[in-house]
From TrEMBL:
UniProt keyword Transmembrane helix present: yes
Region (Disordered), start-end ranges: 1-20, 41-129
Keywords, ordered alphabetically: Membrane, Transmembrane, Transmembrane helix
Superkingdom, taxonomy of origin: Bacteria
Biased composition (Basic and acidic residues): 1-14, 86-101
Organism: Streptomyces javensis
Sequence intervals crossing the membrane: 21-41
UniProt protein name: Tat pathway signal sequence domain protein
Amino acid sequence: MTDNATDKGAADTRGRRHRRWRVSAALGLTAVLAGGGIAALRTTGSPASDASEPTAVVASHSGRLTSEESREASRIAIDAASRPGTAKDRQKAAKQGDGERNAAGGSGAEPLDTRRPLRAKSASSATDSRAEVQLYDYASDTLITRVIDLRSKKVLDTARQHGVQPPPTLAEAREAVKVILADRRLGPGMRESYASQTGKRLTSPAQLRLQSMSFLGSRAEGVDGARKVPRCGEHRCVQLFVRIPGGKWIDTSRIVIDLSARRAAVIGL
């Protein structure tokens, strides 16, 4: 992830802070537990600059889709489960009962990424009308890849994988914030940290600058609280790195948000 702005101060000081932040974020050293519960999410010094919105780039592919092509490909891919002619998708939705669901629980899988599929040099130029769309179905915890023909508006192929967790999107990061805010232990701490820095109420994830990463339960092996996140990897789980715009970081490095189950857990060393 790249940063768009630099913090004030001398370069050497900034470098030391940046290194300390990366160690702290990776190891989750800052405590958020107090007296067996959550006291308040600690606001830390600003160790790095604002970052660009997280993306869900999974692999390197040749060619780029325009913004309009990406939107259209995502629309077709999301609608595919209910569109006539996609019997395989309809059968899958029928087995699930409610069909595919996004991170917020709404109808249709969550879009993660759109790109041009790789093609052989000898392939026809007709393949240039194809787009590959990755989605995550929260109803079945399945990563879905659909190949779309933008000319015919049809789905050419669908593949499904379990236990594969690409990086979260900004939309998913914001859903993770909502889960924290709804938690009776963690929500008050995040709101308090924000209010102490801004003098304002935190009412929406859009008020925060977010970085995020997917979290696998295997990472918590041997860690206190690992029993709380055993399904992460099968479930869609994320960790957040939260910054108040123009201000400090709110330490959430030890919080794991299970978006599939809509709950948060605190783990420690």
